[in-house]
Design brief:
Layout: E1 3-7, E2 15-19, H1 30-39, E3 41-45, H2 63-77, E4 82-87, H3 89-100, E5 105-111, H4 119-134, H5 137-148, H6 151-156, H7 158-170, H8 175-187, E6 200-206, H9 215-223, E7 227-232, H10 239-242, H11 244-255
Parallel strand pairs: 2-3, 2-4, 4-5, 5-6, 6-7
Antiparallel strand pairs: 1-3
Helix pairs in contact: 2-3, 4-5, 4-8, 5-7
């Protein structure tokens, strides 16, 4: 997989791994890099089958496979321990890693994540699959923006958003890979195993998240033995982008504890 190691070259610096959501792109984390790279060694990567990590994903591809791929990447980079910051799908990857190799994770940050399927989110994914099957790809990207961002943020950032969508259209993922990744998200269920995850966790949710109800983060907080829940009023599903200052403040305060 394509990855970059950025930031501090101090051998004693802690490592922060950033794992993206459905899109899988390292570019998602640009709003966090300027602060993180001042103090930490930062790993960003394009998940397998997305962006600069081309691959034909196997049938029955699951979040467990994605966790194994990230663990292999860390082995390749010689990274023994790290914090994993995961947005949505990336948060699921972090929890799966914590089940597989808990000694590798110093902490995890779970942003608008969940531990089991829920009817609302499944309906959103079903609609996205229907649009992908029957509409032009640009319509899929426009629907994606409606899910990710608050209405006022879209209105205020329309030129930048349209430029981003044009770039994404040119680099649209392989459709079969996208469907396999959606299936992996839809079938992920570790609710009965939450109590087995001892990794310290910061859980971040948004009251105005259209895709993942904030109550799903409450379930995580209630099930994980060592967690802190922070709920932002504004930011939609992608508050890392739309409420950068608020999110970065939470993230940096969390990491400063270690």
């Amino acid at each position: 997989m394509y990855f970059e190691v950025l930031g501090s070259t101090d051998p004693s610096a802690q490592t922060v791994v950033l794992s993206s959501g459905l899109g899988g792109s390292a570019n998602f984390w640009k709003p966090q890099l300027s602060e993180l790279t001042q103090r930490y060694r930062v790993v960003v990567y394009d998940q397998l089958g997305t962006g600069r990590s081309p691959a034909v994903l196997p049938d029955q591809y699951r979040i467990s496979n994605m966790a194994d791929e990230l663990l292999e990447l860390l082995d390749h980079a010689g990274i023994q321990t790290c914090h994993v910051v995961g947005h949505a799908l990336g948060g699921l990857v972090a929890m799966e890693m914590a089940l597989k190799q808990p000694e590798r994770l110093t902490s995890m940050v779970l942003i608008n994540a969940w531990s089991s399927p829920n009817p609302h989110t499944l309906r959103c994914f079903n609609i996205r699959k229907a649009i992908l099957a029957s509409c032009e790809k640009r319509v899929f990207l426009q629907m994606q923006a409606l899910i990710l961002y608050p209405p006022d943020w879209i209105a205020e950032n329309i030129e930048a958003l349209e430029a981003e969508e044009a770039h994404l259209l040119e680099h649209f993922p392989e459709e079969s890979n996208l469907l396999k990744r959606i299936a992996a998200l839809s079938e992920f269920d570790i609710e009965s195993q939450l109590s087995d995850i001892d990794t310290d966790a910061l859980i971040v949710a948004n009251n105005d998240d259209l895709l993942v109800p904030w109550q799903r983060s409450m379930i995580l907080d209630e099930g994980l033995p060592s967690s802190t829940l922070k709920i932002l009023d504004y930011g939609g599903h992608a508050s890392t982008v739309t409420a950068t200052d608020a999110f970065n403040s939470l993230l940096m305060a969390h990491l400063a504890q270690y």
